[in-house]
Amino acid sequence: MLRFRCISELWYLDQEKDVETVRDLLEGYENSFWTCSIAKAGYSGTAIVSRVKPLSVKYGLGIADHDTEGRVVTAEFDSYYLLCVYVPNSGDGLKRLELEKSKPVILTGDLNCAHQEIDIYNPACIISLNWQPNPQGNKRSAGFTMEERESFEKNFLSQGFVDTFRIQHPNVVGYTYWGYRHGGRKTNRGWRLDYFLVSGSIADSVHDSYILPDVNGSDHCPIGLVIKC
């Protein structure tokens, strides 16, 4: 039984009503926590709905520009912190959340970066997230630039986080995002932009990390994580 569900890039139009509607659809999830953009309606919201009541909940990064955009919800449980994020730039700023000092961290959401070539369709001649031609190839494609990939490495993997899907499935091609234009989903021209990252201290407790590519309703698909208690 799933203990919690995290939703990123949740476009609230009426934040109270929309989140409660989602919670009502999920039987048994009595606890809901969300934040949304106050700078632009219907943009970049995040939410956590949980069967278990957390010890505490915090919102934002402590960075004024980003904290008006509803990009981070952090819930503290007995044994770990859970972060639901919608990251604009491969993790810059998340290093301010120094949670690992007290408990392991589970971080999930749209990180807007395909870290390795296996994480993107046809990386040698990729065009862009909107499937527009890019004469410079993958080097300047937003979401797959060297700067973004190096930032992902620096801000996450070099800080002790583990990419659970890639550890569990080192050679599997799996995507979580397909642009609506040009039928990207039908032809599986995708990107893996959504992740479950965990602190290295609990990496051995990961039983599975998976992608559900056949679930529709968005240009992204759900991902899941199973941790052994």
CATH architecture: 4-Layer Sandwich
Report the C-alpha radius of gyration, rounded.
17 Å
Query: Which range does the strand content fall in?
Result: 25-35%
Provide the CATH superfamily: Endonuclease/exonuclease/phosphatase
Protein name: Endonuclease/exonuclease/phosphatase domain-containing protein
Site (Important for catalytic activity): 194
Keywords: DNA damage, DNA repair, Hydrolase, Magnesium, Manganese, Metal-binding
Site (Transition state stabilizer): 112
Structure, described:
With 229 residues, the protein is of the alpha+beta class. The chain has one domain (4-227): Deoxyribonuclease I, Chain A. Helices cover 13% and strands 26% of the residues. The protein contains four helices and eleven strands. The strands form three sheets. Strands 4-5-6-7-9-8 form a six-stranded mixed β-sheet. The longest helix is centred in the first third of the chain and has 11 residues, at 15-25. It is globular. The mean pLDDT is 84. One of its GO terms (molecular function) is phosphodiesterase I activity. The record marks 112 as: Transition state stabilizer. The record marks 194 as: Important for catalytic activity. Mg(2+) binds at residues 110, 112, 219-220. The active site is at 86, 110 (proton donor/acceptor), 220 (proton acceptor).
